[in-house]
Amino acid sequence: MTTASVADGDKAAYWRGAVSRAVVPVEVHPRTERPFDAVLVSHRLGYLRISTLEADAARLSRTAALIGRAPSGEPQVGVGVQVQGRAVLEQDGRRAEVPPGGLAVYDTARPYVLDYPERFRAHLFHLPRRLLGVPERELRQAAATAVGPTEGCGPVLLPFLGCLAASAHSYPPPVGDRLAGSVADLLSALVTELAGARPAARADAPTTHLVRRVREYVDHHLADPELAPERIAHAHHISVRYLHRIFEGEGVTVSRLVQQRRLEACARELARRGRTAPTVSAVAQRWGFVNPAHFSRIFRAAYGVSPREWRDLRDGHDACDLRDGRDVRDACDVRDGDAG
User: Model-level pTM greater than 0.85?
Assistant: First the structure.
């Protein structure tokens, strides 16, 4: 999408609409008096959106009002990689100056500003926040932090992301799905690294340890149809209220965690190839779902197809790499406590 063929007075508005559709809704404020010149190229690899922006100096604002207009939109994690020109990212009261060759992390669920004080070229990578599998508090600590080409994960991430953006158009869907999974894993490591660099990330260590124990307990008891917050709290000698409290910063409720892990286990089993394909109801019951109709409904909400269609699709195409259940998380909107 380019402003080249757009009337001068409409160029900035046209590009704002293009960026808002391809990335997330933002306000665009040009920093030049001449007709705004900009190009946007966008590709999708599975759940990963890669957008390359080349434009005159401008300020992109993700405001609270824009976020409020789409409350049901899925929160995304964004990573901006500067190819040419500088960028200044502001979020949560922090300010990160990103030089050419650097990157910065932001969260689309909260207001932020990307200010490009000169003509620039940048790659923006967006993927659902839930797929990183990192606690909410870590993402908050990592937001608005710049990483240079020689710092931390920079020497690994920056060349990979640059090559991926340049070649995104050339990958068939199965390869794109796998590459998207690799990006999710790398960005998860980046967020963990950045959060660990801040003292707040090491606070409340006993709670962090307890959250890890609860997650392990859930994974080991998914087949139990009675697995619920009350049972989990009792097993860890804490109250249900405290259990919910320690998960407030995890980006997922306990009930939804149980449900999403069960769905991931079912998806993996239905995707396995073998001489005897398991029935959908048998798989659902094996992983703690007691109501087949309810299972089919929430599976479709999470994966976009019915369990039977998923199984048949996996038989014909190895299009999804469900590494340890990291590819699909928390995609359906269910009531807390509706884990079965």
Answer: no
Residue with tokens 């600590």: 141
Query: Which residues 6+ apart lie within 8 Å of 120 measured at CB?
Result: 53, 54, 55, 57, 82, 83, 84, 85, 86, 87
Domains of the chain: 8-200 (2.60.120.10), 204-325 (1.10.10.60)
Q: Per-residue confidence at 65, pLDDT binned at 50, 70, 90?
A: confident
One DSSP character per residue, 269-324 reads HHH---SSPPPHHHHHHHTT---HHHHHHHHHHHHSS-HHHHHHHHHH------GG
Specify the higher pLDDT residue, 221 or 249: 221
Residue 120 pLDDT: 96
